[in-house]
Amino acid sequence: MFGGYFLQVKNSFGKIDKSLIRSVGFGVIIGSFIIALLLFLCTLLFVISGKYPETIIEYIALVFLAIGGFIGGNVAGRIYKKSGIVTGGIVGLILFIIIILSGLSSNFFSISIFTLYKFIILLGLSVLGGVVGVNKKDKIRIK
Known about the structure:
Layout: H1 18-49, H2 57-80, H3 84-104, H4 113-135
């Protein structure tokens, strides 16, 4: 599946492939940072302007989630340099778990059809970011 390669965490010598874990970790960190930064800037804009468009706040957050997922998947794909679908998918799944856990910590969280939309959009754009990152000519090198 996926070109004969599907998440081989261990290499041919039986050791854990640390580059996959490292690339996914960096992708999740960068994606989380981008999401948090965009949400912070949007909140700051709402506070300064004094206007809160309550009907579109969830959609704005969804767009920021999609941007962060794409960038996180892209970073992971560029670091790992192969299997962008898998690396982007793992980044999207971990970001979604982080979002769900942070939502569960508040009293206002509920699972609805919009949660499924968030999952599909985040996972899809993270995978797309991973594929784009693998296919870019310049790679990110982390020692």
